[in-house]
Prior knowledge:
Chains A, B: It comes from Marivita lacus. 2 copies of one chain form a homodimer. By secondary structure, chain A is mainly α.
Amino acid sequence: MSRDDGVPKTPPVRSRNPERTRAEILSVAVREFAEHGFHGARVERITKAAKCNARMIYHYFGGKEQLYLAVLDSVYAAIRNREGQLRFGTADPGLEARRLVEFTFDYFSENGDFLKLTRNENLLNGKYIKRSQMIRDMSQPFITAIGELVERGHASGQFARKPDPVQLYVTVVALSAHHLNNAATLGTVVGQDLTDPAWQAERRDHAVEVVLTYLGVETSE
Amino acid sequence: MSRDDGVPKTPPVRSRNPERTRAEILSVAVREFAEHGFHGARVERITKAAKCNARMIYHYFGGKEQLYLAVLDSVYAAIRNREGQLRFGTADPGLEARRLVEFTFDYFSENGDFLKLTRNENLLNGKYIKRSQMIRDMSQPFITAIGELVERGHASGQFARKPDPVQLYVTVVALSAHHLNNAATLGTVVGQDLTDPAWQAERRDHAVEVVLTYLGVETSE
DNA sequence: TAAATTAGTCAAAATATTTTTACTTAATTT
DNA sequence: AAATTAAGTAAAAATATTTTGACTAATTTA
């Protein structure tokens, strides 16, 4: 048998890669905080999934709180970035209104972590989002764009109503998000599986119809 | 001066009142779980607010989890009870549709803990609500009543559309709840205070208008 | 290439949180 | 009114969770 008294087991050869490690921690943390919320999230689970040591979280981010903050910033940057690509102002207002609903609906549907993170952040009363000036600034343009869309649609006579842009935006988001945010409780209450893709497809049509009907836009039959 | 060496300080005279203590713990726990969620809730804070000892939670409920379960059941029983008082089926369908939106909107607005608790329960993926057969059973009748309302409204020609009752219900709830559930993040994004009563009054009108317009009911101007 | 820096490991300390044990006494029952 | 039961207290044990200290080695820089 081999003897290696005094000699501790060979330390595994580690490749060093700061960017990769940092990015990996952040990406894993998005999932962990989305899935369990701030209080439910476990530092240990993050390190295991990121195949690194707890010490690294303190090394790269400073602690659990700061990591959470970095996570928030990163997901808001992602959605605002995609919204920016919509480039409203050129096409038919009725079509653009439809695109607004469809984009919002699909983004939430495809990027589940975003809603889960905001749901938790609201549980915390916005404790952390309030600290982020960046998020505030990034969001301004989109609301403005919706205001201009309403303006154009109404001026052209295509929209029967001229709602407050913020109310319209909140409605679009509500119709696109509530069934995802509350799939578990609502699903139990109505006795249906709201996570079923078929259910969600039906929901999408419904959301579009509600918004376009409200605006008074002809929904092509 | 009085001497009482060896004698530990006089234990305060306690009145005993099982019902009151149990009820007090439950009521305080509703607030605590609503405010902080399951993981964020602290047994110690509950005992302090209920002016009792941690031991009592184990005595009356069995533990933190069982207490949370009791809290869930109690708030669902409360809302289903109030809904039952709506007694649909007698008045004008257009008016009843309006009453449905207004009731839902107002209930959420006035009973903040309900939405906060469901928000957290959804964060936990419905782990606990799924265990409660009672909640499932209580909810059935209300969905049925909405189905009948749609049926009547459509048959009488008053509703232009005949939407799926579940979709309609989810929409009503979404329009009534989303701005409350997400006041912190949405408020930051749109740069307005969604908790302001004036804002919420505007929201109420908007929600009613969206739903009635969708149904094709004349909204009296 | 020697020195400095930074990525990374391991284990334990510090903290926070829930749960239980052991006990006291008020209320209820026999 | 003695015996029993249940409400209540205090304190500490058990557990869970985050954070830090002390160290090792890979990479970069002078």
